[in-house]
Model the fold of this input.
Amino acid sequence: MTQKATRRRGRVLLRPLTLIASVALALSACGAPAAAPPGQSGSAAAGGGGGGKVVIGVGGQTLLTYLPTTLAQQLGYYKDEGVDVELQDLQGGSKALTAMIGGSTNVTSGYYEHTIQMQAKNQQIKAFVDMGQSSGLALLVAPKNEGQIKTIADLKGKNVGVTAPGSSTDMFVKFLLAKNNMQQSDAAVSAIGAGSSAVAAVEQGQVDAAVMLEPDVSVLTKRIGHNPVVLEDVRSSEGLKEVFATDSWPSACLYAKTDWLNQNKDTATKLAKAIKRTLEYINGHSGAEIAAKMPENFAGGDKDLYAKVIDDLKKTLSKDGTFTDDGVQAVLKTQQVANPDVGNKDIKLADTYTNDLVK
Done:
């Protein structure tokens, strides 16, 4: 791909998202903990059955990727279905997963890939309603290297910024290297976090390239005064097809320990139905109508801008809450290539998700 073509692709994909630059909605990547914590006597250890409260840990409640989880509560859909839900903002997918494994929550609003990662660690968790069809990642070139890094092959010997080693952003880099017949060691990765630290690291040339999420991409665009060069972008259906040969890459979802699901199938079905109704609501309403239902502070002081962001988000959400075969296979492929903890292990995908509760 020529630099001109790369820049043109960046303009097409990033222009609608420059609206987000002033909204503080940083999307943290959702890595799984290195190992599950020991059991705890958390407040939710016995919850979820017999009409008890269900505690859902959210991997960053203000993040747009998890909007349906909060919107379902704002719309009263959990209550309509007969479930008393408490949402806990745990400010990161790995923290939300850890809380659930430890027993302080019943259900996690996190990324589907965690179910595969934890099966590789002999811990069974299962996703039961899908919300997102894309991880929202973009691999960008730092301004100092524009004109020098034009393809993935040009990353050899370079330093690529990721939110944290082992995170979804790191996995994305490793997958792209392998896809381009390169070794994982061909490019180094450095943790740059998300938000202002990530933007500063790229802008100031602390890394040669970086995997970023919105609104960090738009903030960077505003600061450097032009659209960054984009090497790969899976925030659109076109990008998903190019990278993963699929229309979906399941990301945000609700999942729980398989044992909990087996013991609380009725409750889980009600949760899945509430999320499905929420996705239908989102599909049938404008960003402004949805923004009006969300907590005031989620808008970052600019509800009109927040509404425009939601309109763009709608393109990446599931319409009916179901997982696709191609989608879960794409996530597994990413993990097999990029995550040594998964590698060639025999992963039974049928045990990592179910569509039965949203039918």
Summary: Confidence is low (pLDDT under 50) at residues 1-32, 34-43. The chain has 14 helices and ten strands.
